[in-house]
Amino acid sequence: MSTPHKNELAVPVTAIDHALGADHAPVTLVEYGDFECPTCKQTAPLLKMLLERRPGRLRVVFRHYPLEGVHPHALLAAQAAEAAAAQGKFWQMHDLLFDNQMHLKIAQLRGYAEQLELDMTRFNAEIGDEVYLQRVREQIEGGNRSNVRATPTVFVNGVIHDTSFGLRALEDAVEALLDE
Q1: How far, in Å, CA of 79 to CA of 128, rounded?
Q2: Taking phi first (over 0 means left), then psi (-120 to 50 degrees means alpha), and beta for anything else, what does residue 55 get?
Q3: How much is the pLDDT for 180?
Q4: In a designed cystine with 8, which of 4, 67, 79, 122 is the match (CB 3.0 to 4.6 A)?
């Protein structure tokens, strides 16, 4: 296995990733995100808008990168999203977590799971047993290998895109690729 360059995605997208859009879309965005990150919350609707604007031409992948030192509830929120994913509702939980970003304590996470009509016995057991902690840690490690330093970090077709200039630059870069 070759070592990725410092601006390249180290872990290729696979079937186990959480993805929206066509599997064979010409443009794939991979976001390493944190459910307590305000900029990640702003990024989510932009990515959905791009998907809607270019059906079949874009795929969006979300990977966990909770910044535990800054966001005390992000790791648990990531595990809750994985527990929802196990019941086929990752993206619904993803949206609820961002919509309620200031309310990510365990009781609130359980409330979102109930709202999504998840099997609560299963959800509570999986959260209690930290069933998805390893998966989240693997995504963090993949982010580290891909030179992720902050959230959101977005890769466009496997190459890191600097979002420090704002989300408009990301939108423009994606649109330019799709127009090629």
Answers
A1: 10
A2: beta
A3: 79
A4: 4
What pLDDT does 1 receive? 45
110: amino acid identity, one letter: R
Residue 5 lies in a domain: no
Ranges of the chain whose pLDDT falls below 70:
1-5
Q: How much is the pTM?
A: 0.94
For the domain that residue 125 is a member of, what is the CATH number? 3.40.30.10
Is 78 a domain residue?
Answer: yes
Give the C-alpha separation, 55 to 159, whole Å: 22
Q: Which residues have C-beta within 8 Å of that of residue 104, sequence separation ≥ 6?
A: 35, 36, 73, 74, 76, 77, 97
d(CA 34, CA 75): 8
Alpha-carbon distance of 69 to 55, in angstroms, equals: 37
